[in-house]
Amino acid sequence: MNKKRPVNLDLMTVRFPITAITSILHRISGVILFFCIPILLYFLSCSLSDQISYDAISAVFESFPIKLLNFLILSALIYHFVAGIRHLIMDVGIGETKMGGKLGAKVMLFMSILLIVILGVWLWVL
Amino acid sequence: MGSVRNITSYSGNGLRDWLVQRVSAIILAVYILTLVAFMICHQNLTYGDWSTLFSNLFFKIFTVIALFSLILHAWVGIWTVLTDYVKPTWLRGLIEIAVIISLIGYFIWGVEILWNIQGVLF
Predict the structure, then answer these.
(1) How far apart are CA B112 and CA B119, in angstroms?
(2) pLDDT in tens, A70-125
């Protein structure tokens, strides 16, 4: 093997294409959501068991830290959802070229940011 | 020619995993959109609205199917990620067992929540 071949082990200087970034974010958001399953089940349990616990969890949801937690979990869900829809669209053969892939990744990022902003407005403004 | 089988993939078959991931994703997407539509229709959601929805037998069945899809979907996804990043077999196996036990527990917990709804008391 040619020992003089260039080697770049500094990952910070490697520029990843947008498709690689959206793909790794899909994985990261999925793993985050996996860890959030018990939190969501706990909230569901509180909201459904009876009126008293529903009122209690509603009050807790209004506190800033829990509202922020819900915002972050739902943001991960929105991203994972939109990225998943893009996957399904690509499964039927749309946007599979190099250019199509990049465009699809950009549209997907835009859609998820838009929906996350709407979520923020819904949680804090409405 | 022996085909490569991986006993720890969900089904031992990559194509079936691929299909399970898609079908469960579609079920979960429809479920989430249903919940979002319900919340948009009930701007000031009360316990009455919420518990009535989850007490409905059809929605209960839908929720159990969604829960089941969730654990299959999570398993295929987590399995893929673990296979890519956790190289020592013993460690990966250990984490996989923990994930499977957790997911089965979440499913049972979810079903238990659905069958313990007090509802509005008159």
Answers:
(1) 15
(2) 999 999 999 999 999 999 999 898 888 888 889 999 999 999 999 999 999 999 99
CATH class of A18-124: mainly alpha
Domains in chain B, CATH or no CATH each? 14-114 (1.20.1300.10)
Give the closest residue to B80 by CA, choosing from A27, A105, A36, A20.
A27
Instruction: State the nearest Cα–Cα gap between A49 and chain B, in angstroms.
Output: 5
Q: Give the mutation candidate from A50, A85, A126 for the B interface (greatest B CB count, under 10 A).
A: A50
Interface test with B, best of A40, A41, A48, A73 (most B CBs within 10 A): A48
B51 part of contact set with chain A, CB < 8 Å: yes
Q: What is the DSSP string of A80-100?
A: HHHHHHHHHHHHTTSS-SHHH
| Domain segments of chain A as ranges | 18-124
